[in-house]
Amino acid sequence: MGITTSKKEVLKGFLNSVNDSQLVLLRSSKALTATIQANDLLPIAAENIKSYTIKRKNSGLRGAPTGLCIGSAIVLISLKIYLIQ
If you average pLDDT over residues 75-81, what whole number do you get? Predict the structure, then answer.
């Protein structure tokens, strides 16, 4: 997850928790497997957040089979039309 603050700082980390006053990021992925220490957490006040981005895990692999099937169908239909003429 990436956060852009009102001071144009870009902060990156893993989303830990969210409430109405702040968002808390984990600084590194190794904190996910170990006991979370206080210095691993990065709280960001809601009024300091300008924008945020969330990257989905394996998002490229989800659409690949659908795109392959649709592309193959279009090629087969085009080839059939071409051979009929």
Answer: 86
